[in-house]
Design a protein that fits this description.
about 190 residues; 7-stranded mixed beta sheet; alpha/beta; 7 strands; globular; 7 helices
């Protein structure tokens, strides 16, 4: 995954609360395991509504409890494939939040009044290094644990994190070979 440092640009607004993963990417599109090709099906049922317009800007501002429902990984994949790099909401479902961070999609929690102000701003800059969202001449801080921040700043998915421990893994395997096979008493 690519490192995330600053996401800047226009803000797309989805002013709806409790958006579940079935609404983000409906079940009929979950027939593949690759991470690409899902963006065209993002909010598939809503996209049929008259007046629907959700531009593929770098930042999505949305209502609270975004990503609730089932824990499908396809929802963050679809958002990222559509073009979003950061999603800002007052709250996220925990599993959805974690799935975002594992692919480099930056979920940002701000107070609801700040999300509303961001929705009105039109454009913003989400700075992961500074842990703040800047818009309309303001800088609003956000929290993100140090481990997740490190992973995103350095573009480290689960496999890359494991590979960072390569020397320790090799040493363990050498020690295991020297000590012989593991036996169990019956």
């Amino acid at each position: 995954m690519d490192p995330v440092k600053v996401v800047a640009g226009d803000v797309s607004v989805l002013d709806r609360a409790d958006v579940d993963t079935d609404q983000i990417i409906p079940k009929q599109f979950l027939k593949r395991v690759e991470r690409t090709g899902f963006g065209e099906f993002l909010f598939y049922d809503w996209a049929k509504e008259d007046g629907w317009d959700l531009p593929a800007n770098p930042i999505l501002a949305t209502g609270p409890n975004f990503g609730c429902g089932s824990s499908r990984e396809h929802a963050p994949w679809a958002l990222e494939d559509y073009g979003f790099k950061a999603v800002v909401a007052a709250s996220f479902a925990d599993i959805f939040f974690n799935n975002c961070t594992k692919i480099g999609l930056l979920p940002v929690v701000l107070p609801e009044d700040e999300v509303r102000a961001l929705m009105q701003a039109g454009s913003a800059e989400v700075d992961l290094e500074a842990r703040e969202v800047r818009f309309d001449g303001r800088a609003v801080p956000f929290e993100l644990d140090d481990e997740t921040r490190h992973r995103l700043l350095n573009g480290l998915d689960d496999i890359a994190l494991t590979l960072q421990q390569g020397d320790a893994i090799d040493a363990y395997e050498r020690d295991r070979e020297r000590s012989g096979p593991v036996t169990t008493a019956l």
